[in-house]
Amino acid sequence: MKTLGIDVGSSSVKVALMDVQSGDCVASVTLPPTELPIEAVQSGWAEQDPAMWWEYVCKGIVQLAQQYDMREVAAIGISYQMHGLVCVDKEGKALRKSIIWCDSRAVAIGAQAFDAIGHDKCLAQTLNSPSNFTASKLAWVKEHEPEIFRKIHKFMLPGDYIAYMLSGEMSTTVGGLSEQILWDFKNNDKANFVADYYGIPDAYIPKFYPSLGIQAHTNEATERLLGIKKGTPLSYRAGDQPNNAFSLNVLDVGDVAATGGTSGVVYGVTDRPQADKLSRVNPFLHVNHSTEKPRLGLLLCINGTGILNAWIKRLCASEISYDEANALCLPVSAGSEGLVMLPFGNGAERMLENRFTGAEIIGIDLNRHTRAHVLRATQEGIAFAFRYGLDIMREMGVRPQVIRAGRANLFLSAIFRTTLSTICNVSIELYNTDGALGAARGAALGAGFYKNREEAFTSLKKHETIQPDPAIKAALEESYRKWKEELTARLSKNNER
Question: Is the pLDDT of residue 49 over 60?
Answer without folding.
Answer: yes
